[in-house]
Amino acid sequence: MALQIEDLGSRWETFFQEVKLQEIQLLTNNSIEFRIRFNDIQSWDPEFAKKILNQPKRTILTGKRILSQRCKENGLNIEPDILLEHLPPDVEEDLREIGSDDLNRLRCVNVVITKVSEIRPRIYEADWCCDSCNGHTVVTQENELELKEPLICSGCELPASGAGSTRFTLDSDRCTWINNQYLEIQELPERVKGSGQPSRGKVLIEGIQCNRFLPGERVTANLIPYTQAGYHRNRKSAMFEIVYSLHSAVRESTPFTDIQPSEEEKMEIKKVASRPDLMAIMQESIAPSIIDVTDKLKVVKRSLLMQLFGGVSRINADGTRNRGDIHILLMGDPGVAKSQLLTYMSKLAPRARFASGGNISAAGLTAAAIRDSFGDGRFTLEAGVLPLADLGIACIDEIDKISNEDKGSLHEAMEQQQISVSKGGITTQLRARCAVLSAANPTKGTFDVGPNQNLMYAFNQTGLPIPLATRFDIIWLMKDRVDEENDASIARHIMASRIKGVPESKVEENTFENPVTKDEEVVYKTNTNGKEYLSVPFLRKYIAYAKTNHSPILTDEAKSMILDYYKQARHSYGKDSEELSERRDEQPIPISARALESLIRLAEAHARMNLRDEVIGEDADMAIAIFRHWREEENVGSVAEMSTGSSHGPAQMNRIVMKIVKDIVSETGKDAMQNEIYSRALTMGIEDTIAIDSAIQRLSIDTQLLMSRPGQWRPF
Ligand code: ADP
Ligand code: MG
Q1: Contact at 8 Å (CB) between 350 and 540?
Q2: 650-715: which CATH architecture?
Q3: CATH number of the domain at 550-644, out of 1.10.3470, 1.10.8, 1.10.3210, 1.20.950?
Q4: Nearest alpha carbon, ligand 1 atom 18
Q5: Which of 124, 188, 542, 637 has its CA 20 to 30 A from that of 666?
Q6: How far is CA 197 from CA 100, 193, 200, 542, 648, in A?
Q7: What is the mean pLDDT of residues 496-525?
Q8: Whose CA is nearest to atom 9 of ligand 1?
Q9: Which residues line ligand 1 (CB under 6 A)?
Q10: What is the pLDDT of residue 650?
Q11: For a substitution probing ligand 1, which of 340, 343, 395 has the most ligand atoms within 8 Å of its CB?
Q12: 629 has pLDDT over 60
């Protein structure tokens, strides 16, 4: 038999009695809310649970009444709100899917808050005083857009209109007031398929829920969609607008909850991580359609990779915070694929926002206070690009073209990773814990940098304020150099990849599968040069996995390596500046304490990529190599030296050889022969036998390998 509305009170009564007795006992005179996991109700009485989902307003209000009664019996004078949490998955929905079927039911959506309005009090129960008899009539106000008067006075029973009518005056002292506030919510950008606009919604929040949310925050919101009549020239129109009333919301506590690798995928991730050529394959996976003929582009891609993994953000004992995000600036001549790299990164990063300096929305990079965006004259705070990219990457193209106000606020946003707003009567702080990847063009068409002039000289030509340069961990200068050989291979590559690409019109007509989404199950792909790389969906899972499971800490070895480099770089800067003080442009780029932090972040990111919980010498090596490259220090060596492939760093070679020996011994049960080691290394693309020999030597001196017989090895 269906549950009748009249039964609801007794259902709540029994529910509180049987399931929640203890929790109710814990309420105090300060309690304003009573949280209930929905599952508690569902497992107790599924039908009652269904009733709540289908008629939430009424049922929850009844529940509140019953609860308040109970509290009174316990001697508490409170009326706590009932907040249902963790709704079942079948009421979870995408914002864009919500329509007439969902009206007035409880629904659950994952959204990001983009705007928050000022608070305004509104009358919940209006108390009207009759002008003729002074009697009071109470009218509940359900619609926040109009104030309803009584039709007749409850005292003298005179009507409000017609013959012998009376008039009513609002007695505001006796009215029940409630705070109310509007939010604008937006679908999560990563859920939006294709190039569609994320859908938006207007949310009314009331009472204790007010002022709990900030723009830029991601929440799982339990909402009740309802309709509001639209207005046309101050008259109601037949078109209705869906508005949401917020029941409860849980702030997202851990990032990447939407990317959860399965057990098999976790195995695959670990397998990829243990490949000795991990760096090479990862590097290939960053924008495979952009060919890295120059060494520089290789290192640029590598630094972008490090940005994806990021260092570890830490909160210190004194409450200060060290960011883990790596900020990168790509300065470059037009047409060197900066925008392409940025677009690619914004698609690849598990959570990213793309904006182009020239046409950023009114909210800009940080936040804006706008009047009247909800149509009733309130101030609203709208989040800009950086708060919306919280815990992700903000890709800002053409950063040289952003407004001066934004340039000023970028400092705080990039270092403290928060944005202080004090606009239109709203004073607050928004969180912007994102990595910034930006691209800058020169003001004069191309960069005019002589061979002896340093990067800062080029930076000046972007027109960006100088202090901003120190906020970037890495600044690349990408010159469009004419080089026949490189040009030819880029041209060949562009030709090849254009032919491989699927025509967009065909994707839109659904005749071809979209090359991006069809990779959902694929791990490896091959590019036009026949090199392997990781598919975007897999790489995203890899990154999410590494970031959630590994927060590496520095070992003493890595610490001392980074410190040595820092001291030496600082020393050479100090020395040169004395000698070259009159030729300022030719000085090496100054290195400050910030650089130390950047190096640590890069090393941490590399350790993370290797799914390690410790930052070892190898990680420090990589961080220093990237650093020396962007700073254009002399004798940095070629990328090959810092990369996998033909020549590895000694620490890496040790690891590779050790792994090979262990593999052979465990597979064959015999000791590893020198030749076998060579041939296995060859399958990994390592031809350099001398490097292998010296690794073996180092390992045996280190007593990690033992020579059982000449030319035969086993782990010690
Ligand atoms: P920018 O933003 O630096 O001015 P774009 O990202 O708009 O340049 O790139 C211009 C075009 O040149 C793009 O279509 C890009 O694919 C192509 N291009 C430039 N360099 C390369 C490269 N190394 N490999 C592949 N394509 C490239
Ligand atoms: Mg561009």
Answers
A1: yes
A2: Orthogonal Bundle (1.10)
A3: 1.10.8
A4: 337
A5: 542
A6: 21, 9, 9, 27, 46
A7: 63
A8: 337
A9: 290-291, 332, 334-340, 490, 493-494
A10: 72
A11: 340
A12: yes
